[in-house]
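Hi R.,

As promised, here are both runs. First protein below:
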Amino acid sequence: MVSRAQFGDVSDEVPERPPSGGLVEALDVSRNVTVGVAVGVAVAVTAYLFRVLELFGPFAGTRAYPVLGPEGWFGVLAFVLAASTALFVATLLTVASVYRLARAEDV
């Protein structure tokens, strides 16, 4: 029978994991998210103002907007527009960062 001592130094300790923040820092994700949120909010506020304040004049047709009224419903839509635009812009910026890093590694 083989004893445990014959296998050398066997340890039950789990090795330390490398820090996972390096990729996030290398891709500058926090800056990309900040820019994405700023662009998303700007697009949503602009769309909301054009629709609710009728900056191009009144829109044709009338509709019923239950519970929240037109301002409330367009506010909800503006939030969805802001969130989706922020995600889209942050994703594009992160993909561009990946591309730049990949090109720099190839050189």
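And here is the second one, sequence first, then its structure tokens:
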Amino acid sequence: MTSTPSSLQRLHLIAVGGSIMHNLALALHRRGAHVTGSDDEIFEPAKGRLAAAGLLPAAEGWFPEKITADLDAVIVGMHARPDNPELLRAQELGLRVYSFPEFIYEASRNKQRVVIGGSHGKTSITSLILHVLRYHKRQFDYAVGAQLEGFDLMVQLTDDAPVIIIEGDEYLASPIDRRPKFHLYHHHIGVISGISWDHINVFPTEEIYREQFKIFAEMTPKAGTLIYDQDDEQVQLVTVPSNPDVKYIGYGPHEHVIRQGKTFLITKKDDEIPVQVFGEHNLRNISAAKEVCKYLGIKGKDFYEAIATFKGAARRLELVREGATAVVYKDFAHAPSKLKATAAALKKQYPQRKLVACLELHTFSSLNPAFLPQYAHCFDAPDVAVVYFNPHVLEHKRLPPLPPEAVQQAFRRPDLRVFTNSQELAAFLHAQNWQNTNLLMMSSGTFDGLDLGKLAEQVAP
């Protein structure tokens, strides 16, 4: 079934409260489509944003009667289950049911599709590209996994834009489609930023996980381009230049210099461009974004002009507060490779300062005893290393109890402090001497409501 975004006018979203799903609902509504949705739980900011647009369901829960024959399509989010009553009703009526990635592909069939994949860095690379294109007033659509400064939605779909920039998640497409999302976008330009085993609940071995990226690489079409981190050993295994009709482009960290806690990019003309992001992983992300932008017609000098104003993606090594002798950063990092890169970046940026770093184990993989050994020596950079997890999350995810000693052993750091009570964690952090000391808080959660603002005021007055 071939469609354009404008031809699908009546759409129902199952699990509309999800981060990317509610953004899709808002984007479709903005485009003029008639949008309805359901979910069994909707939290802020999705709740307020849907309400403001008149799209918030009247009641939480699943209502099969909302699924009627006059719908053009149903879009199902990953949060729904295969036996969802609305999904079953849609299948019974023979309605077209899309996963999020299927719908994005359907809406961008006639566009050039740029898909950024990788275990880490994909949100930042996507954000960099979007920032550059917007700075130079280019027309483009997008789908990205984080809220970006200057963009009110995480999804934009129009009929006019010639290109779409998509963050290509390797997680499953939907409860009834077990393929990785990034296999369904059918990229013309693909990026693989790095591969580090994740999502153990779906990809039980490192080999199975890596295979998903190999499939993505091999999907690069005739006259297509594959841009990849040439120094990542796992990436090297899947990006072997095997197709003479595909252009393979490897990249490394952008040449740079660090002075007094500030990073400057060095261009081919030996100009120095100050940037507001730092760390080797971000310097690699900048190189990847530059290669993509070159293929989209952005010249080098124009790229650098735009990149100097880039402040970073939300929750990706995001500055919370800066004082005279201390800074506080928060980061979405939770996978071993991200944890290692982020902690090392902050230590390298401020080598004269002590670093206190705190990680919350929050995801299924990070709390799984079978996966924990992947964290060995990933937390060596900080002077004081702290790990927090809530035992109730283990129960909720149906995982076995996790003794603090097992966490300490897995990280291979005898002085690692492990907390299972957020109040005790807060007390420990407040008791530190923050003179000439930086704080890094890393989690995809919230440390169970720890008041980071209050803590940051003490760290960096």
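A quick note on the second one: The chain has a mean pLDDT of 92. Let me know what you think.

Best,
J.
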